[in-house]
């Protein structure tokens, strides 16, 4: 039997996936993410994998590393890299419950990226059940902090990818269903304005508002956006009392750059904004960065294989570079052949309309099984 002929059933896959979706796992709740890892570890163990739990660091949840029985265990093989954290806070299930309607399934994290992770687990389950073998040893690595830039597990991912023949990332497919063969750089910055407090009612003029200063800085920063380097402020924290002029305000910036030169110019422009203005000190601290990942021959060979397999399955797999960062930035930038966004098709990731197209579950499982049994 060919791996492309394995009996993947969408309803059975949904039944297995549902507990993952209903186990909420927001990045900043280490306990919740670790519970999700325990659930995935149970399912991986049930299909014959040896699962190691890697303790969390920097306040994040645990990771799990699963290896499948293979005669060449320990030699270069295939790494399936995914994250189990989501952007959805605990309680999102009340607003976005798991539900199925009109060929779609909804739930927090179902598209980004629990659906894709489960697809690859199901591919390995069916490969083993059919008595097939993979030419190369296969390792799964699921991590807890991708949605905040992978500050704790970048080294773990890079160590796992080093020397591998291929890295596969079941991140959600591009809007047209395509795969990602390269990614732009992503940089994060922490901002701080430090002003002077005063009573907002009877001594307003004595204060220097950190909030007002930050608001002006935000407009300045976002106005720096170009086609090649974007800037977006997505988080802001300040103030406790409306009758106090706020003395401190914090914000976070995400920047996307198409090339290393664009990134370098963007970083320089951000750092140059630091200094004092109208009695308010402004500080910019560079945070985590995802490097530029340029398409390379090894990645293109993986894509060519995936495209051929997709044609046999019955769909066309396009490819493109992407502005959204992933852990593929790290492995691709290392020069390890990396194919990204080969997970489920859907819409609304990171929103309360996050959903997948159910027929993409068996479709992508066949693609996963084909890759796992054809990469040599």
Structure description:
This protein has 10 helices and 17 strands. The chain has helices at residues 10-21, 30-46, 92-95, 110-129, 154-161, 210-222, 260-271, 297-313, 328-333, 360-374, and strands spanning 50-54, 63-67, 78-83, 99-101, 104-106, 138-143, 166-168, 179-183, 185-194, 229-238, 248-257, 275-277, 280-290, 319-322, 338-339, 346-347, 355-357. It is elongated and about 80 Å long.
Tally the helices: what do you get?
10
Strand order of the largest sheet: 1-2-6-3-7-15
Q: Alpha-carbon distance between the termini?
A: 19 Å
Low-confidence parts, pLDDT < 50 over ≥5 residues?
Answer: none
**Major pleated sheet:** 6 strands, mixed
Structural class per helix/strand content?
alpha+beta
Helix-strand string: HHEEEHEEHEHEEEHEEHEEHEHEEEH
What is the arithmetic mean of pLDDT?
97
Q: Could you tell me the strand content as a percent range?
A: 15-25%
Categorize the overall geometry.
Answer: elongated
Radius of gyration: 23 Å
Indicate the percent of residues in helices: 25-40%
How many strand segments? Answer: 17
What is the topological layout?
Layout: H1 10-21, H2 30-46, E1 50-54, E2 63-67, E3 78-83, H3 92-95, E4 99-101, E5 104-106, H4 110-129, E6 138-143, H5 154-161, E7 166-168, E8 179-183, E9 185-194, H6 210-222, E10 229-238, E11 248-257, H7 260-271, E12 275-277, E13 280-290, H8 297-313, E14 319-322, H9 328-333, E15 338-339, E16 346-347, E17 355-357, H10 360-374
Helix pairs in contact: 1-4, 4-10, 8-10
